Amino acid sequence: MNKNDNIRSVIEVSKYLFDRKLVSGKAGNVSARFKGSGMDIIAITPTMRSLGSIKEEDIVLIDIDGNNLTKGTPSSEINLHLAIYKANNDIGGIVHTHSPFATGFAFSDKRIKRLEGFGKITSPYLADIDYEKPGSQELADAAAHVLKNEDVLILKKHGVISTGSNVSEACSLSEFVEDIAKTQFISHTLNLSNSF
């Protein structure tokens, strides 16, 4: 895809995530990586903007080293996105959500089981990492290390990162993760109930 297609895909995914209630308020961020002028360029959502109202002129373009190629301020999680892209050349899209069920698990001592339906099952649970301050280099480094070999990551007491070969695939994975978290939450609740 060219630059304009990548920008449009970031906008479409952002609005879809907002409409599906996988993000709310000004939370969450989305990016896509593409080649331009012989280098990797990242199209990313801006900081402090609702993903539900993002427009083409809001998308910020940066190079892989974090240099701003357009006006605007990228998401506060720019270091997170850059570190993940640098760690895994197969990743072309990143979606960071605070979806309610998956994030609920992130704030609990329960883990989300990896179920069939999206890629090969290589471990029984979705990968997770301990809490690091949002926007910090520590968070970026820890997440990138795990996402060298994983496609999704639960950030304890924070949210979810989903990756894919493009931003649409990352979006589909984030939606799937929320659905399996919802199913497992219902299962946990029913198993705790003595009223049946």
What this model shows, in words?
By secondary structure, this protein is α+β, with helices and mostly antiparallel strands. It contains 5 helices and 7 strands, in the order αβββαβαβαββα. Strands 3-2-1-4-7-6-5 form a 7-stranded mixed beta sheet, sandwiched between helices. α4 links the parallel β5 and β6. α1 (3-19) runs parallel beside α5. It is globular.
Quick summary of this structure?
36% of the residues lie in helices and 18% in strands. With 196 residues, it is α+β, with helices and mostly antiparallel strands.
Key features of this structure:
196 residues, alpha+beta, 7 strands, 36% helix
- Give the total of beta strands: 7
Helix content: 25-40%
Instruction: Compute the number of helices.
Output: 5
Average pLDDT level: 93
Within the largest sheet, what's the order of strands?
Answer: 3-2-1-4-7-6-5
Radius of gyration: 16 Å
Q: What is the rounded distance between the termini?
A: 53 Å
| Quaternary organisation | single chain
Question: Major sheet: size, sense and barrel closure?
Answer: 7 strands, mixed
Uncertain ranges: none
Question: Class by helix and strand content?
Answer: alpha+beta
The coarse silhouette is globular
Order of SSEs = HEEEHEHEHEEH
Tell me what portion of residues adopts beta-strand conformation. Answer: 15-25%
What is the strand and helix layout of this fold?
Blueprint: H1 3-19, E1 29-36, E2 39-44, E3 60-63, H2 78-87, E4 93-97, H3 100-106, E5 127-129, H4 137-146, E6 152-155, E7 159-164, H5 167-192
Parallel strand pairs: 5-6
Antiparallel strand pairs: 1-2, 1-4, 2-3, 4-7, 6-7
Helix pairs in contact: 1-5, 2-4, 3-5
